[in-house]
Amino acid sequence: MKIKFLACFLIVCFLKTGFAQQLKSPDGNLTMTFALLNDGTPTYSLTYKGKDVIKPSNLGLELKNDTKSLLNDFTVTDSQTSTFDETWKPVWGEVATIRNHYNELAITLNQNETDRIIVIRFRLFNDGLGFRYEFPLQKNLTYFTIKEERTQFAMTGDHTAYWIAGDYDTQEYDYTTSKLSEIRGLSKEAISSNASQMQFSPTGVQTSLMMKTDNGLYINLHEAALINYACMHLNLDDKNMVFESWLTPNSNGDKGNMQAACQSPWRTIMVSDDARDILASKITLNLNDPCKIDDTSWIKPVKYVGVWWEMITDKSTWSYTNDFPSVQLGITDFSKAKPNGTHAANTKHVKEYIDFAAANGFDAVLVEGWNEGWEDWFGHEKDFVFDFVTPYPDFDVKGIHEYAKSKGVKMIMHHETSASIRNYERHLDKAFQFMKDNGYDAVKTGYVGNIVPVGEHHYSQWTNNHYQYVLEKAADYKIMINGHEAVRPTGICRTYPNLIGNEAARGTEFQAFGGSKPNHVTILPFTRLIGGPMDYTPGIFEMNISKFSPTNDSHVNSTLANQLALYVTMYSPLQMAADLPENYNRFTDAFQFIKDVAIDWDDSKYLEAEPGQYITVARKAKGTNNWFIGNVNGVNSRTSNIIFDFLEKGKKYEATIYADAKDTHYKTNPQAYTIRKITVTNKSKLTQYSAPGGGYAVSIIEK
């Protein structure tokens, strides 16, 4: 008892001039310092191997309609440290097991006068820091509204950043590479003409934000476990190089409505002097709760094909007819409508895709545009737009299901909500039951357009809660979710692994909308994929879209070999062979890699990496001794040098190398490639050329 009293006495005395406490990572390379300033403002800082990563930065939240916010005038009432070390198995993933090892510091703060309590919990891993705000049950803080979260990330200099501009409703931008000081001048240019008007300050950026310092440190800022909270963006004070959190508002401008006991998402800072460590980090997953689905046997990785690309490129249409410019469900009788002749989701055509999937070993076929309502679905902010159960007259739901089942192929449902959230929720149970009744185990959801109710944003607390509601409801029906236009992922797929895919970034579709930068895919794994897998829809073999769609003159800024490599570098348990079957039939030797490549892995090795320039990854297929390698390259040609030391000793393997030719170029000669076979062991080395916008893919099969 005397010892406890003495300890408390010493802390109270020390608080008169401030309080500070350090936390080290398990390997000792990272040091986080928490400090309470003399005015009671909580701060933190971070170093890596003695180098400053985050300078002293303020913590706290500004409250709405409150005389005193949770920003200062705190005293420390408790400080608890602990260590945690476990190994867990993901349902699917880049590796078979994940180590969750960190040291923790939990600081309990009491605010003078208000007697309010908050806990700031820090977890320091070997590869970075996570921290969050916790609000325990208490009499003086029950309901509160967040005006703004004031978490700061004070940078040590004018770092190079790989960023997309702040926007509350889209993440579908090409990345800009610049110094932090240049963001203000470049942010307006970064907003593409077909995206929403920027809902942010001119120095706002989105997370995951990747940076590199002049002294060679790689830093990544993001968040984990975004549940019942608004998505965090970052505003930059470019005079002092300090980022501050900026939450997505709801329809009346508030940033969050909270009820204790509750907590914020984790704010994450990954850091290393090796870019490969950022790609390999599992901090985001580890900061999420363990899986909450008891039986996960129905959750399966999926390789699929579908009619999507022919509609994206304007070869076909989603809508069944052009006769009804203002369709109202329940009034229009589509059986009397005149078909437009270009509707992709018709029974005969879908059966052709089922045949193609069955012949080439694909798991499933995705069909979009199968249901009534596409004639006037977009741009009208309609509340009642789709019912998700009524097919067009030319789409035989039961007949297609029976045909697919006879071929050993699954069907993937498509639910485009037109961002009418209330409409989707009113139909959700009926729609999911309809899926189960007709053999659908997975659905691609979409949220194109302005959120309805009008005034809400795609990443507000209210809308994020909708995405979570759909995910949990889908789990009740044993349905897997592939969410498009939803909030960027933050590792929730650990807790709900039925979230097998997200878009939430600029995907392949933009190659049909004028193109993406050729180095785009060398940045996405450092940014968007930090939070979870992406349904990027790779595998495009015909880069000149006008060859099969005369109304679209877009060009895919990639080589064919680069498209193959994406199946390895862009990790996802959901992978589409996105191109038209006829284009795969023209390049059957290259198509073999897409047929062979795995989608679930026991191990992953990041062999080479530099954001915006190149990434080389090797992955071991689940339950086998076979490996696959992917390399994607930026705008400058490069020679890659790798060692096969990840292979099992004493074993021989046949490596099939799909690579750019000497004269390959993403713009002028994208379809030039070579294929060769060699025997390799764990002592073998590979020197391989990658063209501008190119790359290579390797399948390594044990002999």
Description:
The protein starts with a helix and ends with a strand. The strands form seven sheets. Strands 6, 7, 8, 9, 12, 13, 15, 16, 20 and 21 form a ten-stranded antiparallel beta sheet that branches. Strands 27-26-25-24-23-22-28 form a seven-stranded parallel beta sheet, with helices on one face. A six-stranded antiparallel beta sheet has the order 29-30-31-36-33-34. Among the domains are: 2-286, Beta-galactosidase, Chain A, domain 5, CATH 2.70.98; 302-504, TIM Barrel. A hairpin with a 5-residue loop joins strand 2 (30-36) and strand 3 (42-48). With 703 residues, it is an alpha+beta fold. It is built from twelve helices and 36 strands. The chain is globular. Helix 6 (347-360) runs parallel beside helix 7 and helix 8 (421-437) runs parallel beside helix 9.
